[in-house]
Specification:
The complex is a heterodimer of chains A (112) and B (116). In chain A, the strands form two sheets. In chain A, strands 2, 4, 5, 6, 9, 10 and 11 form a seven-stranded mixed sheet that branches. Chain A is mainly beta and 112 residues long. In chain A, a hairpin with a 5-residue loop joins strand 4 and strand 5. Chain A has no helices and eleven strands. Chain A is globular, with a radius of gyration of 13 Å. Chain B is globular, with a radius of gyration of 14 Å. Chain B is mainly β. In chain B, 0% of the residues lie in helices and 54% in strands. Chain B is built from no helices and twelve strands. The chains are: A mainly beta (112), B mainly beta (116). Chains A and B meet through strand 5, strand 9 and strand 10 of A and strand 5, strand 6, strand 10 and strand 11 of B.
């Protein structure tokens, strides 16, 4: 089955801790994206990557970091600099020329 | 900059009634437009999209949307609501990125409630 997987489903972060959210796709898509979802605010773009070893900041990149060492994988690290990390995080991917993004099931991050 | 406005954060309909979810967009170029559906604690699923061509677009689960350039609208409709349609719906406009891929700008979502 082709698709996007995100893990874990739930993640708890302690004050001052960095945590990493996993996103893997087997759709052979070139572009990958990370979004943050808060109630009543829709989805906001954190980072995106169009090709391996390259990525760009989105609208709300502060306090987050990413890497793209493999085409299939685009992990997101929520750093201690992100003061309000509680949210639902969604990963998506698309082909290079495609206009449609396909989404993973999401990770809910909670602060202890 | 592109933007999307969804009128009504909550919409309630009776089972079997017409569903109408409103979306207006702002775009400096001919837009690509999308409707996604989200069930609780799940990712987004594509319902339908408009890129070019026919302005009435049919999607999954009996939904359709009409692109009206003069009104800058892309409203989502379904003739007869079903209990399983209860979910949150997001309208989005796409902006192609230099270097490949695209950037989606989302509306704030409309929660659809279906009552017996």
């Amino acid at each position: 089955d082709g698709g996007i997987t995100q893990s874990p489903k739930y993640l708890f972060r302690k004050e001052g801790q960095n945590v990493t959210l996993s996103c893997e796709q087997n759709l052979n898509h070139d572009a990958m994206y990370w979004y943050r979802q808060d109630p009543g605010q829709g989805l906001r773009l954190i980072y995106y990557s169009q090709i391996v070893n390259d990525f760009q900041k989105g609208d709300i990149a502060e306090g987050y970091s990413v890497s793209r060492e493999k085409k299939e994988s685009f992990p997101l690290t929520v750093t201690s600099a992100q003061k309000n990390p509680t949210a639902f995080y969604l990963c998506a991917s698309s082909t290079y020329r495609g206009e449609t993004q396909y989404f993973g099931p999401g990770t809910r991050l909670l602060v202890l | 900059a592109q933007s999307v406005t969804q009128l009504g954060s909550h919409v309630s309909v009776s089972e079997g009634a017409l569903v109408l979810l409103r979306c207006n967009y702002s775009s400096s170029v001919p837009p690509y437009l999308f409707w996604y559906v989200q069930y609780p604690n799940q990712g987004l699923q594509l319902l339908l999209k408009y890129t070019t061509g026919a302005t009435l677009v049919k999607g999954i689960n009996g939904f359709e949307a009409e692109f009206k350039k003069s009104e800058t609208s892309f409203h989502l409709t379904k003739p007869s609501a079903h209990m399983s349609d209860a979910a949150e719906y997001f309208c989005a406009v796409s902006d192609r990125l230099t270097g490949g891929g695209n950037k989606l700008t989302f509306g704030t979502g409309t929660q659809l409630k279906v009552e017996l």
